[in-house]
TrEMBL record:
Protein name per the record: Threonylcarbamoyl-AMP synthase
Domain YrdC-like: 12-198
Pfam families listed in its UniProt record: Sua5_C (PF03481), Sua5_yciO_yrdC (PF01300)
InterPro entries: DHBP_synth_RibB-like_a/b_dom, Sua5-like_dom, Sua5/YwlC_C, Sua5_C, T(6)A37_SUA5, TC-AMP_synthase_SUA5
PANTHER family according to UniProt: SUA5, THREONYLCARBAMOYL-AMP SYNTHASE
Family indicated by similarity: Belongs to the SUA5 family.
Length: 352
């Protein structure tokens, strides 16, 4: 995190005001290290209902409850396994959500009526200050409209949901840039429901066994066979999506395919990683950082800009198929499926 990213942190007075707004049942835009959240008092069912209507999100999709620290866990979860404590100690505050059996009193509105609850302590000074001032759980999904690109700056939140929130706390651009890893510890075998910056290997190092991963494909099968599977909107095949059709193309064909589309009269925006800019005036070219942390940091801002530049297609350089790119490949794959009219070609499995 650079110092300029957090040049204008909200002061104590603004944090106090945000906490009061939450107590009054209002919605607040809250920065976290992953993406901005649309925050509400997790125990106020009317406030939680406003999150769903603001986002246009189906009411049975559960929300993550953000806590000031791990000591608050026992108020929200029961039958907490030792592995959860070890992971909380290792990774909180940080980009990891634990799915645990919910404690009595956690509203159905938050859990989507399931017997589990998603919990995390975010690693952002503004979120932590707000959580301490509020001193209870804050429900916060990403502050975007359902299915759309998650916001990583306060300006993104204002653009998308400005009319729905009482206040947006500006904590600068999010350091991580993609949503937290979601680990289900409520069913015996730990399962990663959504990959994120904390990897299966990171988790295995702490708990001494490797979590299973629920792929989109396995999930479809599992959902059909097991109707009680948790609902994870971030695991829908089409999610995190720009309005412009988006395709992933191997670097070896990137320039050629972009030029072909442009030659057919399409306006083409390119998100490249290693491919040098050919300086073709017909292409809106953007180079993203070549390593995963930097690429993730800029990903959603890049997609938003390319989506807004008036192009007919967004072409993205396909990613390496290595574990350190997995969470980003997951988001871009879903962005491709959900983009445009949803018919865009998904080309994740070409070698690069
Ligand atoms: O990084 C993040 O996790 C961000 C920041 C704001 O904390 N939040 C976020 O929230 O991504 P949201 O609502 O956009 O995604 C949360 C995901 C959803 O896909 C939801 O279905 C899943 O977490 N989830 C929440 N509670 C769950 C539960 N009890 N069981 C299974 N999945 C759950
Ligand atoms: Mg989301």
């Amino acid at each position: 995190m650079t110092s300029t990213e957090h040049a204008q942190q909200p002061d104590e007075c603004e944090i106090r005001r945000a906490a009061e707004l939450l107590r009054a049942g209002e919605l607040v835009g809250m920065p976290t290290e992953t993406v901005y959240g649309l925050a509400a008092d997790a125990l106020n069912v009317d406030a939680v209902a406003r999150i769903f209507s603001a986002k246009g999100r189906p009411a049975d999709h559960p929300l993550i409850v953000h806590l000031p620290d791990a000591a608050h866990l026992v108020r929200w979860a029961r039958a907490i396994p030792k592995e959860a404590i070890a992971l909380a100690n290792a990774f909180w505050p940080g980009p990891m959500t634990l799915i645990l059996k919910r404690e009595e009193g956690v509203p159905d509105a938050v859990t989507g009526g399931q017997d589990t609850v998603g919990l995390r302590v975010p690693d952002h000074p503004v979120a932590l200050a707000l959580l301490r001032a509020f001193d209870s759980g804050i429900a916060a999904p990403s502050a975007n409209r359902f299915g759309r690109i998650s916001p990583t700056t306060a300006a993104h939140v204002r653009e998308e949901l400005g009319d729905k929130v009482a206040l947006v706390l500006d904590g600068g651009p999010c350091q991580v840039g993609i949503e937290s890893t979601i680990l289900d510890l409520s069913r015996g075998t730990p399962v990663i429901l959504r990959p994120g910056a904390i990897s299966a290997d990171d988790i295995a190092r702490v708990i001494g066994r490797r979590p299973a991963t629920r792929t989109a494909h396995a999930e479809e099968g599992a959902a059909a066979a097991e109707p009680d599977q948790p609902r994870v909107s971030g695991s829908l095949a089409a999610h995190y999506a720009p309005r412009t059709p988006l395709q992933l193309i191997p670097v070896s064909r990137l320039i050629e395919e972009a030029a072909t589309l442009a030659g057919e009269g399409s306006r083409v925006a390119v998100l490249a990683r290693t491919c040098p800019d050919p300086r073709d005036a017909r292409l809106t070219w953007r180079n993203a950082p070549a390593e995963p942390a930097g690429f993730a940091h800029d990903l959603y801002a890049n997609l938003r800009e390319l989506d807004a530049c008036g192009a007919d297609f967004i072409v993205v350089e396909a990613l390496p198929e290595t574990p350190d790119w997995q969470a980003i490949a997951d988001r871009l794959g879903r962005a491709a499926v959900g983009s445009g009219d949803g018919e865009a070609v998904l080309d994740l499995h070409d070698e690069t």
